[in-house]
Write a structure and sequence with these properties.
The structure is a homotrimer of 154-residue chains. With 154 residues, chain A is an all-alpha fold. In chain A, 80% of the residues lie in helices and 0% in strands. The first copy, chain A, has helices spanning 3-38, 43-70, 73-96, 109-132, 137-147. In chain A, α1 packs parallel to α3. The interface between A and B is medium-sized, with 30 and 26 residues.
């Protein structure tokens, strides 16, 4: 195994989720393009749903990659997949609503919070190890693996 | 060579393309700022062109970096450069059009697709190596290097 | 120390700044959501300020991470923190202004420029080392550490 394979080993699940998110972005963008060319009454809503999804996208990517690199890629990628499902539901739900009752600007807060927590734990664990020599990495990874299942609760 | 130099070795072409894209973003942003302060009739179009470019930017960055890390940085950076040229053409083309015939919301689909394919091949190759012990890394890199030249075909 | 700890060692400051920026994004997004639900007269301005901040966000993240990976994470993270403070000031300032005198579309140009320069120096230093065998890495890191203090000048 050369150096580049070691890199791939630690990130391949994250890359997969990123690729799926890119596919989803393309799906959203094509929806926007089709609706806007046809000037249907739904074009405003599609465009707004796409905008809200795109606004949150860099934040999601950043926090998922940080969580995956700092702690453990498997639960981070799992949370990423669930985020993408929530986003799909949000997008479809946005289109079905009348403009009086659109869903809010934010979505997937719980998942972002979980990924955020993973980053904090990962950095905290690194600092503990550096300054006190305690290594709880294994335990923390097991706990996060288990905790990520809690995201399935609706 | 210390560890940080090894990191730089594997990403310096990607960083260069990212820097050029940042320069281009700044160019777009300054164009928006100037037009919007002057309240010219083109300010709507400039702002819309900039918005479409910025919407696609995180997707582009994510897929270029994944392709570069998973497989080979040279063709990924090359595809990135071509994407930036396509984007420049799109932006300038957007300004020159009347609002009746603006170019679509999407652009550079072929390049994004090429980078996407590079990621898929990279991950597939990693999984093959991990589970079956076959390493086609060298061959795959040569093929991608050659295939990236196909992007030059208009 | 296993491989993943070495990775964390080189990026933990960057991850911290990214986490703070995620918190700030969430703060901005909640502000937008609250104002838009209440349909206050300020909702247009909040939404516009948020849009401008979000447009610049991927550029900032890309350039900060590149600078941190190519040269030195400490000054890159420091510049990132200052950027976040400038952004906060910009957002708050945007809300307080009447629409006739909104601040421009761009902000934090000096910090982005500093991070950009760090990337260029990092790559240049890598190429020098590769082709001529000169290693100014230590000196360059010391200089950037000192130069980052200049960002504090208002």
């Amino acid at each position: 195994m050369d150096a580049s394979q070691v890199v791939v080993e630690n990130i391949y699940l994250l890359v997969m989720v990123t690729l799926i998110s890119v596919l989803q972005n393309t799906f959203f963008a094509q929806k926007v393009e089709r609706e806007c060319l046809a000037h249907t009454p739904a074009s405003d809503r599609v465009s707004c749903a796409n905008r809200n999804c795109m606004d949150a996208y860099p934040t999601f990517l950043a926090v998922m990659w940080c969580a995956g690199l700092c702690l453990n890629q498997a639960p981070a990628a799992f949370a990423g997949i669930i985020y993408l499902m929530v986003r799909q539901k949000y997008f479809v739900g946005y289109l079905g609503q009348t403009s009086q009752s659109t869903p809010g600007y934010l979505f997937g807060k719980r998942i972002i919070f979980f990924l955020f927590l993973m980053c904090v734990v990962g950095i905290f664990n690194y600092l503990l190890m550096r300054f006190f020599g305690n290594d709880y990495h294994e335990h923390v990874q097991t706990i996060t693996n288990a905790a990520s299942a809690l995201l399935l609760i609706p």
